[in-house]
Design a protein that fits this description.
mainly beta
């Protein structure tokens, strides 16, 4: 609960056999979490708590064996290596393996929650930070999960308004912002390499997914507004090999 910490970092640390997370980022911004190892942790291993936390830099961490807990929050019964409540954070070159459910879970909230509860903060419509060169494998459900909504736009808490009388802005007065996910490698997950529920202008680039039991990449509902469309570009999707089971 310390606000902006531009010069602060957690670097080169090891956490193992924890009964309640490895790292919690709570009311904190611009923290650097780099080159850490977490093994055999109950509940979400890296936990972004109230959905107001922004601009944190999660880089090159190794997370293995994230386990469900029946003693923490309800959401910890389906844990993720990294649980993300506000999308405006940065995840680069992390490796997650062996989670009971998910590797990276964007569980975006309608508004900020907890001690920072605020209806003027609307995470599911905020800009998405960097997601690049991450790995996920051997998770019980999904390598990457985007849930429920990810529809980033210029004014997150304002409605999308169609104005057919404005020739210079024929689509939206509250335009979409492009979100880009780069170079995910996801394999041997219990259901999908990646799944998204409802998304706006969200683009998956250069994904490599293989050997998941249900599907490589799945979308439940993709919005299509002119050029602001959901996309999968240059993906390599392998269904099943002899290495699947």
């Amino acid at each position: 609960m310390i606000g902006a910490v531009h010069k602060s970092y957690c670097k080169g640390l090891g956490t193992h056999t924890s009964f309640n997370r490895a790292f919690t980022i709570h009311g904190t911004h611009y923290l650097r979490l780099m080159n850490n190892v977490a093994y055999d942790v109950k509940g979400h291993t890296i936990f972004i708590e109230d959905a107001v936390e922004k601009k944190n830099y999660i880089y090159k961490n190794l997370i293995m064996k994230t386990k469900r807990s029946w003693s923490l929050l309800n959401t910890d019964q389906t844990p993720a290596c990294i649980w993300i409540t506000n999308p405006d954070n940065n995840f680069v070159e992390n490796h997650c393996g062996g989670s009971d459910r998910y590797a990276y879970w964007y569980d975006l909230q309608t508004h900020a929650i907890g001690p920072h509860a605020n209806t003027n903060v609307c995470p599911e419509n905020e800009r998405v930070g960097t997601f690049r060169d991450n790995h996920a494998h051997s998770c019980g459900r999904y390598g990457l999960r985007i849930f429920h909504n990810m529809e980033p736009r210029k004014f997150p808490c304002k409605p999308v308004v169609y104005d057919p009388n404005n020739a210079t802005d024929p689509f939206w007065q509250n335009p979409a912002i492009t979100a880009e996910f780069w170079n995910l490698t996801s394999w041997k997950n219990g259901r999908n390499g990646a799944i998204a529920e409802r998304v706006g202008d969200v683009r998956f680039h250069n994904f490599k997914v293989a050997d998941s039991l249900l599907a490589g990449i799945e979308f439940s509902l993709a919005d299509m507004h002119g050029e602001n469309t959901t996309r999968i570009d240059n993906a390599l999707i392998i269904g099943r090999t002899n290495n699947t089971d």
